Amino acid sequence: MRIAITGASGLVGWPIARWLAARGHEVTTLGRCPVPGFAHQPWHLGEAPDLSGHDALVHAAFAHVPGRYRGGEGDDPDGFIRANLKGTLTLFDAAARAALRVVFLSSRAVYGAYPPGTRLAEDLPPRPDTLYGEVKLKAERALSGRGTSLRATGVYGPPVPGRAHKWVDLFTRFAAGERPVPRIGTEVHAEDLADAVERVLALETPPAVLNVSDIVLDRHDLLARYARIAGVPGHLPDRTDSAVVSEMDTVRLRGLGWHPQGDAGLDPVLHAIAAFER
């Protein structure tokens, strides 16, 4: 399959592009700068690219304040909406003209703040409580009937060339002797997200929305693993009650044969991060 992908230099897009290429797909990156190892087509979020010659589009690009998704608008909400909603709709229209299959990287943020412990299934009414979630939901609705939105939780993986890994600030503060505040949340390995993308692209009649989530990760456990692997002593935060977590239900995705790595995926990533930091 000939697949165009936006955001392929990012923490989410790069592992997806790499996964798809490794499985024999012809990947073209759309963006401002070429991504080593891939064919490239110059493009800016907001432009309508020429997508002829492709079979599918994966939209992973997102403009935001570095390191922030919720709150990623910073002090420019209008610019945030213009880039990420209007730009995405322009891209979807270009994909429709080229009759492409589309996978859009959405977010669990579309669900908003349901009571702690709520099981978040795809048929639960979205009620986003951030501008980030609102923009993702509006893009989902614009795509409905023309592609699939993957509602991904936090994504972790090995370091991406030229990028700081997602936990760099946390690990740096921990290694410096700071005791981080307690936190718990859900995560999915980048390769498992990429696997979900490929599975959806192979479907003749793909669903409109699918949840993508795997492990519940307490910051205490993450830092304990990192301390052991990297040989870094530090002050671990208290554990957080797992009852506060609202997990996304992934029964529909698992029904497509999707089997995420679970806890087994975490240590290899931490080993790669520790090696990168040396």
Fold and architecture overview:
The chain is an alpha/beta fold. The chain has a single domain (2-277), classed as NAD(P)-binding Rossmann-like Domain (Rossmann fold, 3-Layer(aba) Sandwich). 33% of the residues lie in helices and 17% in strands. The protein contains eight helices and ten strands. It has helices at 13-22, 77-97, 131-143, 168-175, 190-201, 219-230, 251-254, 266-277, and strands at residues 2-6, 26-31, 39-42, 56-59, 101-107, 148-152, 154-156, 184-189, 209-212, 215-218. The strands form two sheets. The protein has a seven-stranded parallel sheet with strand order 3-2-1-4-5-6-9, sandwiched between helices. A three-stranded mixed sheet has the order 7-8-10. It is globular.
Provide a short characterization of the protein structure.
This protein is an alpha/beta fold and 278 residues long. The chain has a single domain (2-277), classed as Rossmann fold.
